[in-house]
Structure formats: structure tokens, C-alpha cells
Amino acid sequence: LITFTLLVSSECVDDFCLKLVTLQLLLQNRQLTAEGDLWKCDDSLVAPLPIKSFNSSSEYGRGYAAAFAKLNRIQGAGGWSPLDTNRYQWLQVDLGSRKQVVSIATQGRYRSSDWTSQYQLLYSDAANNWRPYLKDGNIWTFKGNNNSEDVVREELQHAIVARYIRFIPLHWSQKGRIGVRLELYGCSYWADVISFDGHSIISYRFRSKKMKTVKDVISLKFKTTARDGVLLYGEGQQGDYILLQLQRATMELSINLGSSQYNLIKGHTSVTSGSLLDDGHWHSVAIERYRRNINFTLDHQTQQFRTNGEFEHLDLDYEVN
């Protein structure tokens, strides 16, 4: 997963930069719309999910599977119960995409002596690197149920923004075993940060088929836990291209302003910067080009270099991704 926000210098005057400015403004407007609707953020997120959205550490039997853990449902055995009753059990819900979760409601297993009296929540965007829900800086333990039918709802001090939620039982019924039915309340999450899962891109088509620039200013911020991924790419039919990517958690900028006929003079130029950029923290990148002179800045560390070859314009066709 690579997430980045595009920002553009106010000195940026060429067509390439204007395209990035347009993208940033569109994302900002999207965020404002979402913020205006936050007061409506109370949808049932679990109820509409299909069976495949549920997973668990184990199940007591076929009728006790994770998919039966929806609030107020009586199908199957009336809720989820794991095979073993200990603190190593978990129930996982895949919300399908990143959601903003503002509260959770729980019940015990229908007409049984099985319920969960205390639990914790973990969350993740990729079903790994799980983070515990914190309150006042501490891992928070939620109060659950003391019978099988009453609904106990807990409002979150701050919203969880994630795709995956894990329910971790800590204490349970002394009369029975771990059991739960639950619902998560919230809404879709919109932000001025674009998230990618490795199978999607955003493309911007040029108004004309070709774009020829002598000056470019590109600035972006990103965070990721992936070691490899493309952040920006554009190419032209004449062989020009610009590529910004992560290779083994190191940033690599490749650019070609053109090579001479028969490749007697090659224009490909590549530089690398940084390491361990898959740490999940925000990093900033800036590329400033004027003709063949480039300033390449990563986290305030700048490299200055000149591109190979003898050409000074970047010729791109159709779009940048």
C-alpha cells in the first residue's frame, strides 16, 4: 500500500505542474465534502457484509463460525464462539475498504451462557501490522456483556480509520465460553490522501496529445510499508520518460530527456536516495528541473545533478500516472 499527497510549488508555471495542482485541489474539495457529512457517520458497517468478510482464530463448530457474529442475528448457533476459550482467540472483520469507525456494539451468543465481558480492538489496513486501539495513550479495554441478549454499545474516544478490525476477547462468561455478536458503526472514509493497494492507479490525461517542458517542479509526500512501488510515471513516444519509484525501500529517480539517433548518446539518468522508506512514516520528495539541471530532495536532503545526453526538454505523451 502506497499513500501519497501531491503538493506543488507556487513557482510552478508549466503545464505539467498545473496538472498536479488540479489534482490536489480536487482532492481537497473531496475532503471538505466528507467533513461536512461527518455528523451522519453512524452507518451499520457489519450487517451488510458477505460471509467472506469474516475470519477467526478458530470456531467451536460449524454453526459457531465468524460469519454468524452479526448483531441480533440468530442464524447458526447464534454467534461466534472459538474452539478454545483463552486469550489467544480473535474475530476479524474485513470492511471491504477503509472506513471510519466511531462505535462498537456487542451481544453474547443467542440464548446461551456464552458472552465476552471485556475485550480489546486491533485495526489494520492490510490485515497485518496490527495496531491496538488506544485511549488516553493506553491500550484500551472495552466493557462487554454480562448476558447473552443485552446490547452494550461503546463510543470511541477517537475514530478508527482502517479496513480490518480484530476483536480480542479478554474475559468471558464464567458459566460458559467466549461468545459474541457485534456491530461496528461509522461511514466511508474520504481524505486528501490517495491510497493504493498495488492494483490501482490515477492517470491524468493531457489536453493535447503531447507536452514539452523545459522546467518541472514536482513535490509529493508518501508513506508505505511496501518495499517496492511506483509513485510517478510518464513517457513519450520519442523515448523520453520520468519515473519515481521505490526499489528495496530506497527512492529512485530515473529520467531521460532523449537519446541521439542509434543511441550514440544515451540520455538515461538514474539516482537513488534514502533507505528504509517502508517504515510507514511520512516522507517528502521534491524534484526541481530546469533544462538538464535537477535538484532531487528527499526528506530535506538534496542531490544536485545533470542529466545525461544533450537534450533539454521533457517530451511526454497523453498522460502521467
TrEMBL record:
Transmembrane segments: none annotated. Residues 193-321 form the Laminin G domain. InterPro entries: ConA-like_dom_sf, FA58C, Galactose-bd-like_sf, Laminin_G, Neurexin-related_CASP. It is found in: Membrane. Keywords: EGF-like domain, Membrane, Signal, Transmembrane, Transmembrane helix. Residues 33-187 form the F5/8 type C domain. The keyword Hydrolase does not apply. Its main location: membrane. Pfam families: F5_F8_type_C, Laminin_G_2. The keyword Ribosomal protein does not apply. It is a single-pass type I membrane protein. Gene3D superfamilies: 2.60.120.200, Galactose-binding domain-like. GO terms for cellular component: membrane. Belongs to the neurexin family. This is Contactin-associated protein-like 2. It comes from Poecilia formosa.
